[in-house]
Amino acid sequence: MAHYHLIGICGTAMASLAGMLLARGHEVTGSDANVYPPMSEELARLGVPVALGYDPANLARRPDVVVVGNAIRRGNPEVEFVLEQRWRYASLPEVLKQEFLWGKRVLVVTGTHGKTTTTALAAHVLTVGGLEPTFFVGGVAENFGASFRVTDSDYVVLEGDEYDTAYFDKGPKFMHYLPEIGIVNNVEYDHADIYPNLEAVKLAFRRFVNLLPRTGTCVVGFDSPHARDVVARSFAPLESFALDASDAIWRAENVTYTETGMRFCVIRHGEPFGTFELPLFGAFNVRNALAVVAAATCWGVAPERIAEGLATFRAVKRRMQLRGEVGGVAVIDDFAHHPTAVRETLKALTQRFPGRPLTAVFEPRSWSSRKKVFQDVYAEALSVAQRVVVAPVFGREEVPADDCFSPEQLVADLTARGVEAAAVSGGESIVSYLLPRLTANDVVVLLSNGSFGGLHDRLLAALHAAGTNPVLKPVGKSGTAAEERSTAVVLEDDGGRSAPSLG
Questions:
Q1: I need a surface site. Which of 44, 66, 227, 360 has the fewest CB within 10 A?
Q2: Full set of structural domains in the chain with CATH
């Protein structure tokens, strides 16, 4: 067994890799400049020694392989020492490939949106179907209470990210994986820090599709015109899926919403395949489910097992996650940051909480949202909400002034659309702004791909403290069951890391 040292170990993906390597019997150590929960607690539970700060002394006992996280740059003291010593180093995707993928049957989930949920859903459905896959996902899959699992199965499910791999490998992570089945859910422009334009993004996905063997399968979302384009020359046969495109092999019809989720009929080659229930909301989650139905069928999972897996799925943390409800005000945490994901998330929340006023609190934190590239389209996306609060641009000093996203312009654009909107300085100021404006039937969703400074917990605590405020009085017995919930369920924070490594 080998000794792996992980530089930047407290990132979600790196900590998950540490757990996977331990499960394989390897020795694991690590270092990070910011050691914080929940990953610091998870690493402590696993018994992984973690050094605070980067120092060549952390490598006094020479590891067999040094894994360099994609947030680590040249100038890092440990990186410089490893380069000078000419020791073996690798990226996270390289290690996944070498340790867990060769000789396996691998499903890789890609796309601009929906990767994490689709990967977690696929892992659960295939587990219910008896395949017991190893999996690696960029979030905590609630059915497993973890972001990874290592099994003896021949099957592996991976979230395939188009973001770059490491400072020494600027290609997409998914190019290191060995897909037998590749899901291309959708393709749009994103990651403005590394892709200059949409064509560059499409080229990356074309190269991924070119990894698929002729005996494999490309599962592609036909509602996305750019996804259709990138699979046009696939050597692997296509299994297309769609809600709207009539020429797709797999289609969903008769989508209805219940108090707990959705019900829909799946059509395959124009013939009924089955009726399925999913405890999620939103058209995008129907598409995610269709992709999983198609992939699971390719691997021989019976329709009734697929139906059981979909019906018992428990989602992923930070995807429309109810963090608490106090005095009839629901506080939701969601990872959405791309304007398409923001729009679809807000639409889904109007289905989950019908008739309840929706407030969106948006933090421009990803590189694409911090730049002007999506300035105009955010107004259309956020106008689904009745009220919008825009936080300051995260790390604004890192973005050139002439290319920086403008919260003030977004507020002006939303106001012109008739949406109540304000740019607020963040943290306690946002809480102070919201508190007198919230009523007992409101839904507040915090949209950020980082921790948002613990704003979820701050808002819930303030709502508790304002419990005697008549504006926040709990809804009486005449309200709906959802309105009558008044006990806060406060879950852990994600530790503040805003890593784009897994979507």
A1: 44
A2: 3-90 (3.40.50.720), 100-311 (3.40.1190.10), 321-484 (3.90.190.20)
